[in-house]
TrEMBL record:
It comes from the Bacteria. This is S8 family serine peptidase. InterPro entries: CarboxyPept-like_regulatory (IPR008969), Kelch-typ_b-propeller (IPR015915), Kelch_1 (IPR006652), Peptidase_S8/S53_dom (IPR000209), Peptidase_S8/S53_dom_sf (IPR036852), Peptidase_S8_Ser-AS (IPR023828), Peptidase_S8_subtilisin-like (IPR050131), Peptidase_S8_subtilisin-rel (IPR015500). The lineage of its organism: Bacteria, Bacillati, Actinomycetota, Actinomycetes, Propionibacteriales. Coiled coil: none annotated. Belongs to the peptidase S8 family. Pfam families: CarboxypepD_reg, Kelch_1, Kelch_KLHDC2_KLHL20_DRC7, Peptidase_S8. PANTHER family: CEREVISIN-RELATED, PEPTIDASE S8. Residues 1-23 form the signal peptide. The active site is at 187 (charge relay system), 233 (charge relay system), 405 (charge relay system). Residues 178-456 form the Peptidase S8/S53 domain. Keywords: Hydrolase, Protease, Serine protease, Signal. It comes from Kribbella deserti.
């Protein structure tokens, strides 16, 4: 911590809140199981590992940060406090994760750690730490999908959104354009050299060069050196905040700001968190030297959840931003079409300021997220231009987009203007929010509740930048602060209103502790204070410049009385309504009615006047406000709520009606009685339509479908003259008829949109509306008194003189005087659906009418109504009397009850659903066994404790392995994969893809390199060999055929990992090399390969029990050096050589089925290659590399047997051919071969699930054209040319060679699938067999798939494996005494161990050490230690099974 940071922390008390860490997990007040969130539990089902978040309870105390006046010190202090808290609270868990050898990323901006690839056991262990608050599954966020807008025919110098919020008036009135303010976005990136953004980029230096340090954070990993935008969204939002090219493209609100950016949106939740953290303390491009002084003032966040949410994601970051003085601006989401609960997080959170989206006519967009956010918070906070907004896009272009993503940057830019003009406000987030709220232009909307001043559609209203600056404290300022308390108790009163009048006007709301504070111009002020339940009071204050004036108030409580009543339907049915009843004003007192009777009760202060607002929770009803005057006693207010005239089809039990005709065009075709006339001569066919051929949004202000004549869609050269004609309407009983309709007439020039009237059935017409000069949007009403009392009234919408213009949309046409919602027969049914096992609510259950199946409802949670349980539903039933109703929910047994539905009333009907429920005891099993024959059976019991049968399927889930080395070390598979291995070797030697040596290709045997874990040498192959094919069958490794480089062989051998010996088996019927081989159904199938005359079709099957080969069906497309894989009990042969010289290579793919002894030709491989690396991974055959006759390849493909298709996969890290290849751990493993024109020992692994490659440890020996098998065994191969070798080695940790992806080779279970009746149980026996290759700890899981609504964790299985009783450790070092008499380690020395049975060749590591398991049955041993330049030593030795055998060698130089 710097001195400044330390001083700031001490001076301001920015400390970590103390949460004492308990030593014993049981002291944790929150049970560990409850910390594991359901989403994470679900993610772990059926998986061995997943990523997850560990969130810590401890928080830094940042409450005093705002008191630090210095911008740099404030930011540094906040970052230091956050770092300190994270370091202290995370220490124990990080140590535990290190011990688990798990990858993780620790954060300090949010006190959390993201763990990669953790198991159920890891999660459970971490949950036991008291400092851990919870463990969560990752969450996916993304930049909202914006709607492409329509580009204007001309460019507006100042875009409509800029003018709409009066930003251009701010420029001219105040001369302010944002100078001195740094703005940022967390988005998809920014084109930094865009003509409208390059001059505002903070990274542009005076000399025109660029410095991207501290100005760009590459969170997505796509653009390391400089900002870029691979999407376009981020460039567009930045353009709206800051863009201007100095000419015709004035697209930004604050074009004099400087900007920086992070592309954290949205590859992952971690990228977003990291971006938010970086904004607190930006770093250079290398991620070093953080500097809080370079943090931005404002950050725009045009991203969020893709569905309505109040998820607290990034809450810690947002709080830290505010403490640091950064204003975070947020989009409110684009799910508005879902209605009044459509705000998206993080914008929906209380602490976040979010924007809604309106259009050029100031109408809210249908897509704009709306409705209460967290804990009933009004959302959005404010609205801004967001529809058809033109801004910058990558490629130095411009485009029109729509969405709250476009609205939010308008607000961010306005804040930049405000802070630039009023520097005293910089970093004062509460004061800035208050100014935004109080200066917004009110826009009333009752759709989702609220008032004209503040509602859940527009928030506080429309953004007005000029009013914002007019109200700002520009000049001499001071702080006015105080506290409002209860006069009787002294407690602070939250939510009190403090109205300030004087040189600056403010309306403030007290915080949770009753305090208020604001920055105002110096002068004298009058203050009025009110709070619900208290008597109001007033006071005065004199504020002086650069000082703080304190004014406190104590309020006296007023006596309370009860207000109660009933809320009912007011449009004909009269049934009780489920509604929210609120006392409008600061108190916010509310109650929800009881759904079955409509009753509510409130308490309010006596002797006062109130407005009671009623918001139906059943859609389609008006929001009603009623005045109420109460005296000293209780009062009653009954309210009948009418259906909204525009929502007759939304409100249950109503249909559209009118006293004339009302049409909404929802059918998508011409409505009954309506006609379309083509007036062009000859007819053009370019007429009114109802299916929206141009895919336009409904811009009329209505919703749903509409009628349109789309001149733009008809294109250049077209002509339109068409009428949309209504049916004849009887208005004999209507005294004041009108034509009322919603429209969007998008005018270009010359076209006309008239409304014409006939009162004589179409004989004569008169024009009652002419539109021919400008755009018109919204609702239009035309009085037609001449039609009163007429029986044959018609209206037509006449569009003419159209030719490649825009369009005319018409919707919701009324010909009459009013829209009437007409009730239909029926009643409401309401109730709950619960779980009989738990008594808890079931959300998402579907309740339907048996006699009217289309009448359904889905149960929901009711978090806002604490008096109503979750699992609530209501539905309208069009049939009354006794009728069956059924409740269904996933994994529950459906239940049907007869409900006596009362007409025009609410009938209660609740359902309790049965389900099975499993308990598992114990939750894990463990055993200790000895290789290779150890075997034991453990059991666990699964009981159905529920009330319905359960279908249960058991499966095996691969876990991890921890290998015990001869030196006592232990390594997990992940550690093995991440090891470096031996030093990289690249042998620049001749190579060939021909069948054998022809002529001279002298390649000396490669000198041994330095060996290193984790690759370990095994017994040398009994002969030098290359082009052998190796398979793993029943834990033993079989090497089939091959050759010595000059001739093929028929000899085969099997390696026993427990005995560490090779044994000859029956030879092939004919000599072969580079065959296709695989273990299928307990036998080894061998086909193709080079015979005497080239690739040979003969195919044989080997029976290990009989040690005999049998001829089977010949290969229809024989190849040598083909890729091979076994999947689904069938052997695949992919590509390969077609001649003895190999070329031309083939792309043919064939498959052999031993069960039917048949071959099948499949879809060709995408390339003609030989020596391609293939294997079965999951349900697919995956291949990479190969040689096409010219060069090695790095491309690859995956084969799907179900569709017989190949799909490209990610390119390998290097071109490769003739590598050693196997599968293990769910990956394709590739090591050695020819990579980049050199024989190498480098390796890499392909993860099919992620379509990514990762490094494998370098092998000890560089070889190509060798054999390999699951295990991961590498046998023989050539060090160049046709120089065959005998050395072999193994990469431990990949022993699971089960045929099916869901099997674990060392584990079997006796149950697969069954049905458990309620109360029934089953004992499952798990048998573990230590027939594995290496000692150590093996873990797996037994999955329990069931059809219940509850999650069941995998049963953990642990097998601890000890080495065989015949194994002992041979270890030691090889050192030398050099010519100076000094002792030195000799790395890369050869240690050859010869016995009566086998030979082993090892090489020493970087310290000259070696350590290996050997079987005592090889005793006695002759050990030779040698290295070029040193005199070899030979000695006799024996391994001891009880104590390690140490043989150290000290060599002398050959000469000095």
């Amino acid at each position: 911590m710097s001195a400044i940071a330390a001083a700031a922390v001490v001076a301001t008390g920015l400390t970590a809140t103390t949460v004492a860490a308990q030593a014993a997990p049981q002291a944790d007040p929150v049970p560990a199981a409850e910390k594991i969130k359901p989403e994470l539990t679900k993610a772990l089902q059926g998986k061995t590992a997943t990523d997850f978040w560990v969130r810590f309870a401890e928080r830094a105390d940042l409450s005093q940060a705002a008191k630090i006046a210095d911008w740099n010190q404030r930011g540094t202090a906040v970052a230091a406090a956050l770092r300190k808290t994270a370091a202290e609270s995370q220490a124990k868990v990080r140590a535990e994760l290190d011990g688990m050898h798990l990858k993780y990323e620790a954060f300090w901006g949010s006190n959390a750690i993201k763990v990669s690839g953790g198991s159920v056991g890891h999660v459970q262990k971490l949950a036991a730490f008291t400092e851990v608050e919870g463990l969560y599954a990752p969450v996916q966020y993304q930049a909202p999908k914006v709607t492409a807008g329509t580009s204007g025919h001309t460019t507006m110098a100042v875009e409509w959104g800029i003018a709409n919020i009066n930003a251009d008036d701010v420029w001219s009135t105040y001369g302010v354009k944002g100078a001195g303010i740094t703005i940022a976005n967390i988005d998809t990136g920014v084109q930094y050299d865009h003509p409208s953004l390059v001059n505002q980029y903070r990274g542009k230096k005076a000399d025109g060069t660029f410095d991207h340090n501290y100005n760009w954070f590459n969170a997505a990993g796509t653009c390391a050196a400089a900002p870029c935008d691979t999407n376009g969204h981020g460039t567009h939002t930045m353009g709206t905040m800051a863009g201007s090219d100095g000419g015709a493209n004035q697209i930004g609100v604050a074009p004099d700001v400087k900007w920086i950016a992070a592309n954290g949106c949205c590859p992952s939740d971690a990228a977003l968190i990291t971006s938010g953290q970086w904004m607190l303390e930006p770093t250079n491009l290398a991620g070093q030297n953080p500097d809080a002084s370079k943090r931005p003032n404002i950050i725009n966040n045009s991203w969020g959840s893709q569905s309505p949410s109040n998820d607290p994601f990034m809450e810690d970051i947002a709080l830290a931003w505010e403490a640091s003085g950064i204003f975070g601006m947020w989009a409110n989401g684009n799910s508005g079409a879902l209605g009044c609960q459509s705000s998206g997080s993080p914008g929906s959170r209380i602490i976040n300021y979010s924007a809604g989206n309106y259009d050029i006519n100031n109408n809210i967009s249908n897509s704009s997220g709306r409705g209460v956010g967290q804990d009933g918070e009004i959302k959005p906070n404010i609205s801004a231009p967001g529809t058809n907004v033109r801004s910058a896009i990558p490629g130095s272009g411009y485009a029109n987009f729509s969405g709250t993503s476009m609205a939010s940057p308008h607000v961010a830019g306005a804040i930049a203007l405000l802070w630039s003009a009023a520097p005293s406000l910089v970093g004062n987030i509460p004061a800035t929010k208050a100014l935004l709220d109080n200066t917004a232009t009110d826009k009333e909307s009752s759709q989702c509740g609220g008032t004209a001043d503040d509602n859940n559609v527009f928030g506080e209203g429309r953004l007005d930048a000029l009013a914002l600056l007019n109200a700002a404290p520009i000049g001499d300022t001071g702080t006015l602060t105080g506290k409002v308390t209860n006069a009787a108790t002294g407690a602070g009163i939250a939510g009190a209103t403090v109205t300030v009048t004087g040189p600056t006007e403010r309306q403030l709301t007290t915080g949770a502790d009753g305090t208020y504070s604001t920055l105002v111009n110096a002068g004298d002020y009058n203050l009025a204070v009110s709070a619900f339940g208290y008597k109001s009071t007033t006071g005065t204050a004199a504020v002086t410049a650069n000082a703080t004036t304190t004014k406190d108030f104590a309020l006296t409580a007023a006596p309370l009385v009860n207000v109660g009543g009933t809320v009912t339907d007011g449009s004909g049915h009269g049934w009780p309504l489920y509604a929210k009843v609120t006392v409008e004003g600061p108190g916010g007192v509310f109650d929800y009615t009881t759904p079955t009777n409509g009753r509510y009760t409130l308490q309010v202060p006596s002797n006062a006047s109130y407005t009671i607002k009623v918001e139906s929770q059943i859609p389609g009803y008006e929001t009603v406000s009623k005045p109420l005057v109460v005296g000293a006693g209780n009062a009653t207010l009954n309210v009948a709520v009418p259906v909204r005239g525009d929502s007759c089809l939304t409100a249950p039990g109503y249909v559209n009606g009118s006293d004339g005709v009302y049409e909404t065009f929802e059918s998508g075709v011409a409505p009954a009685g309506w006609t379309v006339v083509d007036n062009t001569v000859p007819a053009s066919g370019q007429v009114w339509t109802f299916n929206n051929p141009g895919n336009r949004a409904n811009l009329t202000g209505a919703g749903g479908k509409f009628a349109i004549i789309d001149s733009d869609k008809y294109g250049s050269g077209g002509k339109q003259n068409s009428s949309l004609v209504s049916p004849k309407v009887d208005l004999t009983a209507v005294t004041a008829p009108v034509i009322k309709f919603a429209q969007d007439f998008n005018y270009l020039g010359g076209e006309k949109a008239n409304v014409e009237l006939s009162i004589d059935g179409g004989t004569t017409w008169e024009t009652v509306l002419t539109q021919a000069t400008a755009d018109v949007r919204g609702v239009k009403e035309i009085a037609i008194p001449q039609a009163a009392g007429k029986a044959e009234v018609q209206v037509r919408f006449h569009y003419f003189d159209g030719s490649y213009d825009w369009w005319w949309q018409v919707d919701n046409v009324l010909i009459g005087s009013k829209v009437i919602c007409q009730p239909v027969n029926g009643g409401l049914v309401t109730g709950h659906v619960t779980d009989t096992n738990t008594g808890g609510a079931i959300n998402g259950a579907v309740v339907s009418s048996g006699d009217k199946p289309a009448e359904t409802a889905t149960t929901v949670a009711t978090p806002a109504d604490t008096g109503l349980a979750d699992g609530f539903y209501w539905l309208f039933s069009s049939v009354t009397g006794p009728h069956p109703f059924t409740a269904k929910a996933g994994s529950y047994t459906s239940k049907t009850s007869v409900v006596d539905v009362e007409a025009d009333w609410t009938t209660p009907a609740s359902f309790a659903l049965d389900a099975g429920r499993l308990s598992v005891t114990p939750g894990s099993v463990e055993a200790t066994l000895r290789m290779p024959t150890g075997k034991t059976t453990k059991s666990f019991t699964v009981t159905n404790t529920g009330k319905a049968p359960v279908d249960v399927e058991f499966g095996e889930v691969e876990g991890d392995v921890e290998i015990l080395g001869a030196d006592g070390s232990r390594k997990t598979r992940e550690q093995i994969e991440q090891s470096d291995g031996a030093p990289l070797q690249r042998l620049q030697v001749p190579t060939s893809f021909a069948n054998k040596l022809a002529g001279k290709m002298p390649v000396p045997a490669a000198k041994p390199g330095i060996s290193a874990d984790p690759w370990t040498g095994i017994s040398n192959y009994p002969a030098t060999v290359m082009d052998n094919r190796t398979v793993n069958l029943d834990g033993k490794v079989y090497s089939i055929a091959g050759g010595n480089g000059s001739a093929s062989t028929a000899n085969n051998y099997v390696y026993d990992p427990a005995a560490k010996t090779w044994t000859a088996i029956a030879p092939l019927p004919g000599a072969r090399n580079a065959v296709t081989a695989g273990a299928v159904g307990g036998r080894i199938i061998v086909s193709g390969g080079w015979g005497a005359s080239g690739p040979d079709a003969a195919t044989w099957s080997y029976d290990p029990a009989a040690n005999a080969w049998t001829a089977v069906k010949a290969n229809p497309a024989p190849r040598a050096a083909a890729g091979q894989a076994v999947l689904g009990g069938k052997l695949y042969s992919i590509g390969g050589c077609t001649t003895a010289a190999c070329t031309p290579m083939s792309n043919t793919v064939v498959r052999y089925d031993p069960a039917s002894d048949t071959w099948e030709t499949l879809a060709n491989y995408p390339a003609a290659v030989a020596f391609v690396a293939c294997g079965a991974v999951g349900d697919a055959v995956v291949c990479t590399g190969g040689n096409n006759g010219t060069a090695g390849q790095k491309t690859g493909a995956s084969y799907d047997p179900s569709s017989n298709t190949w799909t490209p996969i990610a390119d390998a890290p290097a071109d490769n051919w003739a590598a050693s290849v196997a599968t293990g751990g769910g990956k394709l493993l590739v090591v050695g071969g020819v990579q980049g024109a050199a024989v190498t020992n480098a390796g890499f692994a392909y993860d099919a699930a992620a379509n990514t490659w990762s490094s494998l440890p370098n092998a000890n020996t560089p070889r190509y054209r060798g054999g390999a098998a699951c295990g991961f065994y590498k046998v023989g191969g050539s060090s160049g040319g046709f120089t065959a070798t005998a050395d072999s080695e193994v990469l431990p940790g990949f022993e699971d060679c089960a045929d099916a992806a869901a099997d674990v080779s060392w584990l079997t279970i006796d149950q697969k699938a069954l049905t458990l009746a309620p109360g029934a149980k089953v004992v499952v026996k798990a048998t573990m067999t230590a027939a594995v290759d290496q000692p150590g700890k093996y873990t797996a899981g037994i999955s329990i798939k069931e059809n219940t609504p509850y999650s069941v964790a995998n049963v953990g299985v642990t097998m601890n494996v000890n080495p065989p009783t015949t194994w002992g450790k041979l270890l030691g070092t090889v050192t030398g005494i050099n010519c100076q008499g000094l002792s030195v380690a000799i790395p890369g020395a050869t240690v050859q161990v010869d016995s009566w049975a086998m030979s082993f060749t090892f090489t020493t590591d970087a310290e000259g050490g070696y350590a290996y398991w050997l079987d005592r049955r090889n005793n006695p041993l002759t050990i030779i230690a040698a290295k070029d330049g040193w005199k070899p030593q030979v000695r006799q030795s024996s391994v001891n099974v009880n104590t390690p055998t140490t043989e150290d060698f000290v060599l002398k130089p050959v000469k000095c």
